[in-house]
Queue: 2 jobs
Job 1
Amino acid sequence: MVVSDYSIPVFIEGLKKIYYPDKVVLSDIDLTVVEGETIGILGNNGAGKTTLLRIISTLLLASNGIIEIFGLNPSLDAFKIKQLIGYLPERFSFYPYYTVADILNFFSMLHQQERVDQEDLRERVIRLLDIEPFLNVHIKSLSKGMLHKVGLGVALIHNPPLLILDEPTSGLDPLARIQVRKFLLDLTDDFDKTVLISSHILEDVEAVCDRVFILEAGKMLHQPLWISELKHKFAELRRLEIKAPYLTEIAKDFIDVDEILYVNTSARGIELYGKERYVSNIYKQFKDSINTDSNIISHLISLEDIYFLNHAKIEWMDFLS
């Protein structure tokens, strides 16, 4: 099935990528991205996140399957597609003795924009990223967070409708991460961009994405899930952490309980994932027998927990249905 719909930023069906001679890095990928949404791709190192983004960005060709970017075929229309996407790889570098202004001007000219458009877009990018005080600073003198902002500026300088970001907050300090997250929220809210983000930082994905899916060993564990829907479902679940090694023997009492999704024991104690009402009752039952409040904690379920449950092959979606 070929869609050839110019309003759909990304359409992928049955995508497979094999590196010679027989290393399969992506298999059976089906994905449709609609205009204006932000989709997060989660996965461990080596899961295939970067390979998938490089294929969407036309930097790699798929071995099999269908892929269309705004209805265009990457094999035939790579140049046109490059005008429609802004790509920020996880690792990038610029000429160290260029200033920030030099870099923005250089990449603006590479996209062959009209001079008036160049200046207008350049000013918009500078305002959006709040980098005007750094325009005359050399690249070699920038902090990592500021360098990331310049990278985002380069990805945006030609005003592409689709932005592809590979680990945009990886390695940044907490303040820089917050700034990048705010930028991404502003980008989708005020500039109507479609954004694809790969990350292993679950907190960032949860904060900025509309939908999310997990890649593991080159395969999608599920179709993209709405973050808002997940949060609604999460409200039914709790994770109870009991830091009391002497109680691990009782873990077996919860394994076959319908209201308990998963029981995990370790040298530190027990973790229970289960329905909110049942877990609350367990919390009340054990609270008085545990030494301090810090040793028994009831947590709301987060995206990090869902990531863990997926990795542990726990069917949490069936449990909540």
Note: Residues 13 and 116 are 40 Å apart (CA to CA).
Job 2
Amino acid sequence: MMLPAESHPKWAAVITGELKPEFKYLATKMLLRNLRHVYKAYPTRERMSECIIKLRFFFEENSSNKKVLSDLRSIIKA
């Protein structure tokens, strides 16, 4: 499955909490909780970019995990 580009608006929507997909994989939930906390503590464009890079990298590195792919689909389809 192709990952959306870092510039895709759904990444930012997930980090801000505007988009709240149902995740199945605990590591995805934990990472997103952490990224939301980091971003809310200092909500700048640069911080958002850092969070998006980390979230996207997580999906890229775990692309062979079926639960991670399911979580990615829930972002794309939302």
Note: The mean pLDDT is 96.
